[in-house]
Amino acid sequence: MTWSIIARDSQTGQFGIAVATKFFAVGARVPHIVAGIGGIATQALVNPYYGIDGVKLLGQGLAPNDILKTLLAGDDGRESRQLHIMDARGRIAAHTGRDCIDWCGHIQGDGFSIAGNMLAGAAVLDDTAKAYAANVGLPLSRRLIAAMHAGEAAGGDKRGKQSAALLIHGEEEWSELSLRVDDHADPLRELARLEEVSRERWVHFRQFMPTRKNPAGITDRATIDAGIEASIEASIQAAAAGKT
Asked: Are residue 165 and residue 228 in the same domain, yes or no?
């Protein structure tokens, strides 16, 4: 009932997952990321513990294939599940149970993994992959959304549209961007709008938040405000120069 893409930006080290479906609040259950280590998407007749337990195993350094075997071994409902995993080394593992509804399957490429079920056809994943590869110059958030739009144009979830989500992590345990559209007539378009809104202030503010290296972050409001304005101006100039 869903298709998703897990990707790692080789320039920034960011991990991202984008997902869309004809089901309520897909972002609440499908995407899971361990900062700097890897990502997991659990879907079809979703088992939330694939994500909950899977990220723990990723954090322990297990390879995606070993994580996959461990999760499936403990679940008698495995043939109704779909799962894909990617780590920072680019290793990918995927499972599509034999009881998942057609069209269903998985593809992978350089730095990304895509899986889906209950789709209009294989072109949904193929076109998602082509668009992701073609938009290498975009920031990861926009690149993932562009890829999902291409998959939707190829038919997407054959039942229609309802929810979408985007999750991105950088070096910190907290997400750099976490967007959810839980119930909307055009969820991917709304997701793109929210991502655009995030660039108005949030992406400029997050540089001042606490980090493991700087546990207090920046708390001086004058410094924060001046930094945000400078960052916004730099983004405007970069956009004018065609660099973003």
From this structure: no
Q: Residue 208's domain spans which residues?
A: 203-240
Considering only CA atoms, give the Rg of the chain. 18
CA distance linking residue 117 with residue 72, whole number of Å: 18
Residues 31 and 70 in one domain: yes
Instruction: Round to whole Å and give the CA distance between 39 and 41.
Output: 7
Domain match, 235 and 148 both: no
Residue with tokens 């493991």: 212
Q: How far apart are CA 83 and CA 42, in angstroms?
A: 5
Distances (CA, A) of 120 to 72, 123, 146, 225: 27, 8, 18, 47
pTM above threshold 0.90: yes
Side-chain half-sphere CA neighbours of 164 within 13 A: 27
Domains in the chain: how many in total?
A: 2
Question: What is the token pair recorded at 240?
Answer: 């004018």
The model's pLDDT over 35-45, given as tens digits with 9 standing for 90+, comes to 999 999 999 99
C-alpha–C-alpha distance, residues 160 and 212, integer Å: 42
pLDDT of residue 244: 58
Whether residue 196 is contained in a domain is answered as no
144 and 48 part of one domain: yes
The total number of residues shown for the chain amounts to 244
pLDDT of res. 239: 76
